Amino acid sequence: MSMIIGLPSSWMTASPPKTSNPSAAAAPNAASEDGWHEALGRFAKRGIPFAIAQEHVAGDLVKFYGVRSDAAPASANWFEWFYHRDQGMLGYSFEVSKLRSAAFDAAGALGLEIFGGDAVIQEDGRPMIIDINAWPSYARYRERAAQAIADHLAQRFERRVRIVSRQGVES
């Protein structure tokens, strides 16, 4: 379950999302009622008008990176993933194609062409996207990502409509 909380006016009355994870008490800032209010208060002080909170999802944490082009099918777009190094593993099996599909669907919904994020692989093998970012670090894959981004931008430029006139080329 996720909830959207409007800030700053309602941050004092919002309750923390319920969690079925007993280790959530170790999570910073949202493990208690006070921590929840403190975290929301910091958002409000920074002028952030909304926060989205999601209850804990148990499973294996994976990071992913992608470059998405509407001119090609998702299967032809660049995509890499790996298990997050600082997390314990439960060893849930999953289909990479489902992670890829979920990641590209989330990126598409947000209009992102260059993206990265985190997903939790649940016990039944379903990926749950918990975070997605534009222009991530591309740790581990910087060289391959740089080439994929360059290729994507070159293809995008080639597809751009250009008007040729006596004064030159206009885009």
Structural class: alpha+beta
Poorly predicted regions are 1-14, 19-29
Give the strand order of the largest sheet, numbering strands 1, 2, ... along the chain.
4-3-5-6
The level 1 CATH classification of the largest domain is Alpha Beta
The succession of helices and strands, N to C, reads EHEEEHEEHEE
Tell me what the structure shows.
By secondary structure, the protein is α+β, with helices and mostly antiparallel strands. The protein has two domains: 2-54, no CATH class; 60-159, 2-Layer Sandwich (D-amino Acid Aminotransferase, Chain A, domain 1). The protein is 27% helix and 27% strand. The protein has helices spanning 33-45, 96-110, 142-159, and strands at residues 2-6, 50-54, 60-67, 78-83, 114-121, 127-134, 163-165, 168-170. The strands form three sheets. A four-stranded antiparallel sheet has the order 4-3-5-6. β7 (163-165) and β8 form a beta hairpin. The longest helix is centred in the C-terminal third of the chain and has 18 residues, at 142-159. It is globular. 19% of the residues are buried.
